[in-house]
């Protein structure tokens, strides 16, 4: 069943793009969500919503990707980013991490009107996937307090590991 593993639906309307994770939103979804959002912003979308009413879990990479997208959208002149109607599980996670103060949260009726498409989370280039994981954890490392400290250390370790792998790959090509 797709909901248990998790899937992401996406909808575009005028200058708004809305992502709607169902079930578990994980590191495997993060690169495709990020790429799609970046392309939408390049194409002139100004508003990015993440509708969390059907999401039961978000891993740290997915959360870090949301932080990255929030920062990216806020650099747009008229950009707006918000989480819509987080499920009780997502609310609890956001509160535990202190993210309810960072993310704008809007509670609204179900937005499943209109055309929704499943966003494929096809296998990535492994190096690109790993870079996304590192960048997501670097975003979490920017948080204040204990959560930020924990993720700064993890992001540093992940970045060192990735750099080492890239050096080995380059060395193997020479």
Describe, in plain words, how this protein is organized in 3D.
There is one protein chain. With 174 residues, this protein is an alpha/beta fold. The chain has one domain (2-173): STAS domain (Transcription Regulator spoIIAA, 2-Layer Sandwich), CATH 3.30.750. The protein is 50% helix and 21% strand. The chain is built from six helices and seven strands; from the N terminus they run H-E-E-H-E-E-H-E-H-E-E-H-H. Strands 1, 2, 3, 4, 5, 6 and 7 form a seven-stranded mixed beta sheet that branches. The radius of gyration is 16 Å and the shape is globular. The N and C termini lie far apart (46 Å).
Write the layout of secondary structure elements.
Elements lengths: L1 H4 L1 E7 L2 E10 L4 H13 L4 E5 L3 E4 L1 H15 L5 E5 L3 H10 L7 E2 L10 E3 L6 H16 L3 H29 L1
According to CATH, the homologous superfamily is STAS domain
Number of helices: 6
Amount of helix? 40-55%
Largest sheet: 7 strands, mixed
Q: How big is the Rg?
A: 16 Å
Q: Uncertain regions: pLDDT < 50 for 5+ in a row? A: none
Provide a compact summary of the structure:
This protein has 174 residues and is α/β, with parallel strands linked by helices.
Key attributes of the depicted protein:
Transcription Regulator spoIIAA, 50% helix, single chain
């Amino acid at each position: 069943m797709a909901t248990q593993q998790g899937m992401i639906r996406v909808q575009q309307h005028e200058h708004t793009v809305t992502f709607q994770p169902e079930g578990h939103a994980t590191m495997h979804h993060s690169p495709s969500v990020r790429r799609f959002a970046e392309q939408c912003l390049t194409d002139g979308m100004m508003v990015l919503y993440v509708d969390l009413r059907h999401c039961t879990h978000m891993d740290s990479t997915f959360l870090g990707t949301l932080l990255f997208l929030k920062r990216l959208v806020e650099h747009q002149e008229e950009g707006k980013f918000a989480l819509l109607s987080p499920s009780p599980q997502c609310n609890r996670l956001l509160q535990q991490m202190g993210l309810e103060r960072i993310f704008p949260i809007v509670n609204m009726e179900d937005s499943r009107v209109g055309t929704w498409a499943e966003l494929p989370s096809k296998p990535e280039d492994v190096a690109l996937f790993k870079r996304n994981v590192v960048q997501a954890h670097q975003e979490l490392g920017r948080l204040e307090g204990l959560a930020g400290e924990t993720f700064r250390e993890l992001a540093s370790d992940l970045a060192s590991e990735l750099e080492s792998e890239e050096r080995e790959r380059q060395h193997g090509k020479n």
